[in-house]
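Reference record
================
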Amino acid sequence: MSLDDYGGGQHEQSDVLVVTTNDLPGYRVTRVVGEVFGLTVRSRHVGSQIGAGLKSLVGGELRGLTKTLAETRTQAMERLMEQARARGANAVLAFRFDVTSGADVGTEVCAYGTAVVVEALPA
């Protein structure tokens, strides 16, 4: 089991910086590109649903569903970064996730934020 199996986030070598804050210390926003989002919808695997149902009888973490949600959030975040990059941004401020379950068919995950162009302040 790797750290990425049950968590996520941005990799250090990324060319688009994504933060949850409204500003970025050490940087100056030179242009606001606008809202960007990355969206994905995942259906639940029948095997994981059966496993989750059995696990709910005894309690505990539903690891299969946890791993699926982590993968889904990572995919949504990667799509957000693709959108920002395609529009000329190098950062996304006020990054958030929105998660919605849809009629027992799947889970919609939307990663969204404000795409901007930033430059580092002189030291």
User: Anything to note?
Assistant: The first helix runs from residue 46 to 58. The beta strands are 17-18, 27-43, 91-102, 106-120. The chain has a mean pLDDT of 84.
